């Protein structure tokens, strides 16, 4: 396990360095932040003075070296739009995005696995046909359209839930959460459901396919021949053997939800990292954009490591080094 951890740590460092380099390179061509910071009434001397103060006159490799050295200590520079340290902006917005992503993943995983098992067991029932039809709709509709439909139905027509913002939040140190207030939950439901619909449909169809495949296996026939109950066969033997691909999908989708919640956060004006990134793109705020992509890359690396570890929990035969011994 130590060798596995060291190897993954090295791979993570390479991935993060590559992402930082590519992001920093691409964002040099998204616009001139000096023009947007000073406006059209500024003089050329003012522009040159600001460019020198921001280090924009330095060669690309010098700017990138300074960025990497500072980022290693958690300093991503100053936002060109808000004149605030980027680390403070991310720390302020990250709880909202993380909270939204985790609730969405929990909804998608719990309902997706449950519905997938039901559809596989009762595949000829009306419920199975209805859920499969729902999964097609969930996969086909774009996220922004699902969000707009939810707002139309539950906010405009029925008036049950708010359509924008995060609502009342509670502070626990530097972390803010809306999970401790009724108003926070009311604001969270619609964006969380919007983000979870596609993931729910994907997980449900995957669990169904894997369950049907496992239920045709010889060890399931042997378990039934031993006189085990159908509940034990389905949930103790069959379901456990479908979890590895499900863990993979859930892990990747969690990273995807955090990275691509931009649309949902824009539709619901959710004050998270996605909305911060959109605002940074509009202003050509290079430090914020680069820090955002580096953070997303770090999240994917950590999630992939966690997924690999969960493999060994579900199936001990996949532990590093075990195959060499046998």
Q: What's the SSE blueprint?
A:
Blueprint: H1 2-26, H2 33-38, H3 44-54, H4 60-71, H5 86-121, H6 126-140, H7 143-157, E1 170-172, E2 175-177, H8 182-215, H9 218-225, H10 230-238, H11 243-259, H12 262-267, H13 273-283, H14 286-314, H15 322-325
Antiparallel strand pairs: 1-2
Helix pairs in contact: 1-14, 5-6, 5-8, 5-11, 5-14, 6-8, 7-8, 8-11, 11-14, 13-14
For the largest beta-sheet, the strand count, sense and barrel status come to: 2 strands, antiparallel
**Count of alpha/pi helices:** 15
Cα radius of gyration in angstroms = 24 Å
Mean pLDDT: 81
- Helical fraction equals over 70%
Q: Per the principal axes of the C-alpha atoms, what is the gross shape?
A: globular
Q: Write down how many β-strands occur, each being a DSSP E stretch of 2 or more residues.
A: 2
Counting helices, strands and paired strands, the structural category is mainly alpha
Task: Sketch the topology as an H/E string, one letter per element.
Answer: HHHHHHHEEHHHHHHHH
Catalogue the unreliable spans: none
Measured between the Cα atoms of the first and last residue, the distance is 17 Å
Biggest sheet strand line-up: 1-2
Strand content: under 5%
Please provide a written account of the structure.
Helix 5 (86-121) packs antiparallel against helix 11. The chain has helices at residues 2-26, 33-38, 44-54, 60-71, 86-121, 126-140, 143-157, 182-215, 218-225, 230-238, 243-259, 262-267, 273-283, 286-314, 322-325, and strands spanning 170-172, 175-177. With 326 residues, it is an all-alpha fold. The chain has 15 helices and 2 strands. A two-stranded antiparallel sheet has the order 1-2.
């Amino acid at each position: 396990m130590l060798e596995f951890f060291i190897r993954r740590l090295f791979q993570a460092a390479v991935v993060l360095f590559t992402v930082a380099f590519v992001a920093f390179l691409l964002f040099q061509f998204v616009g001139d932040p000096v023009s947007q910071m000073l406006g059209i009434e500024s003089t050329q001397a003012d522009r040159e003075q600001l460019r020198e103060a921001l280090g924009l006159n330095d060669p690309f490799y010098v700017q990138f070296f300074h960025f990497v050295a500072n980022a290693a200590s958690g300093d991503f520079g100053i936002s060109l739009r808000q004149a605030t340290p980027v680390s403070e902006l991310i720390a302020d917005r990250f709880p909202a995005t993380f909270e939204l992503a985790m609730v969405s993943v929990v909804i998608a995983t719990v309902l997706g696995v449950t519905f997938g098992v039901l559809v596989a067991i009762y595949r000829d029932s009306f419920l199975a046909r209805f859920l499969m039809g729902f999964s097609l709709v969930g996969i086909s509709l774009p996220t922004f359209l699902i969000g707009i439909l939810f707002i139309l139905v539950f906010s405009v027509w029925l008036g049950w839930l708010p359509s924008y913002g995060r609502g009342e939040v509670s502070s626990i140190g530097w972390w803010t959460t809306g999970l401790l207030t009724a108003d926070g939950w009311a604001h969270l439901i619609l964006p969380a459901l919007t983000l979870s619909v596609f993931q729910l449909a994907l997980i449900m169809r995957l669990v169904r396919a894997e369950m049907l495949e496992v239920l045709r296996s010889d060890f399931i026939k042997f378990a039934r021949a031993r006189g085990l109950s159908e509940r034990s066969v389905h949930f103790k033997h069959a379901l456990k053997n479908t979890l590895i691909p499900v863990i993979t999908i859930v892990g990747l989708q969690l990273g995807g939800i955090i990275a691509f919640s931009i649309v949902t956060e824009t539709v619901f004006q959710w004050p998270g990292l996605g909305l911060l990134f959109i605002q940074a793109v509009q202003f050509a705020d290079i430090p914020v954009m680069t820090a955002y992509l580096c953070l997303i890359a770090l999240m994917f690396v950590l999630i992939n490591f966690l997924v690999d570890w969960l493999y060994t929990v579900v199936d001990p035969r996949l532990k590093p080094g075990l195959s060499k011994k046998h």
